[in-house]
Structure formats: structure tokens, C-alpha cells
Amino acid sequence: MQENANEIQVKLFEKPQRKGKGKGKGKRSAVEPTDNYALDVTEEVNCTIKSLYRARLPISAPKYKDLKRLCENGIIPKAYHFEYLNLPSSVNVPDIFPETDAEDGEDTDNESHKNDDDEFTQNCT
To answer: Where is the composition biased (Basic residues) (predicted)?
Structure first.
């Protein structure tokens, strides 16, 4: 482990110049780093993330039963049994697959998700 876990070493490299670019010819020489920088990452972010749900969302009872069977048969590795067997389940949750979009191959939905990251960064200052 690093001595100072609050520092990140950043090494900048020059781009190698190649003759016959794209033809697979020529030798590559090692490129020396131009500068080294140490960044201090101890700055705190004053941000609270709101929970979307009040409790963990349950899975359907048949899905839980299937997960339990997969754990008992050794198909799911033992390291994950605790996580899967502690999932909440309910008989009131329908056991269905979510519907897919009619236009799966098209990127018509990109505009609606474009500013999702902007909303997060605006709330965290």
C-alpha cells in the first residue's frame, strides 16, 4: 500500500511519433515521462445523495426460490450465498421481464439522458 494514500501520482507521457503510421512498420522507442505531478485528493465534497427507495426492493418469490436452488446446487459460488439469500422477496412482486423498447437499435432516447450527469454535479458543490 502507498505510504500516503491521499496522494495520486500522475505521469504524463509524450505521444510517440511513428513513421508510416497505420502500416505496422518501424520500431517503437520507449518514451520518457515529461512531467510528474502529485495531486492532493483530501478535499471533501459537500454532497448528500438522496435515497430513491425507503427500503430494499423485493424480488418475486419464484425468482428467490430459483436463486436459493442455484445456491444449494452449488451453481452460484458460496462467496455470494449470503448476499443472494438475504435479498427480500415478496409474493406480491410479479415475476416478469421488463418490456423492451420498440426501437432497440435506434438512439432516440439519448437526448433525455444527456443531462443526467449535469444534474448530479449541480447538486454536489
So the answer is: 18-28
Reduce the DSSP state of residue 90 to 3 states and report it: strand
User: Using CA atoms in the order 51, 52, 54, 58, what is the torsion angle rounded to 10 degrees?
Assistant: -130
Quick: pLDDT tens for 2-48. Answer: 455 566 666 666 666 666 555 555 555 555 556 666 767 777 777 88
H helix and E strand count, the chain: 4, 4
Burial class (CB in 10 A: 0-12, 13-18, 19+), 67: buried
Give the cell for residue 62.
Answer: 419464484
**Distance separating alpha carbons of residues 56 and 120, to the nearest angstrom:** 22
Q: What is the pTM of this model?
A: 0.42
- How many domains, the chain? 1
Q: Is 67 part of any domain? A: yes
* Predicted confidence (pLDDT) per residue in 82-123, tens digit: 999 999 999 998 888 777 776 665 554 455 555 555 554 555
Closest by CA to 12, choosing from 37, 29, 30, is: 37
Dist CA 17 CA 98 (whole Å)? 50
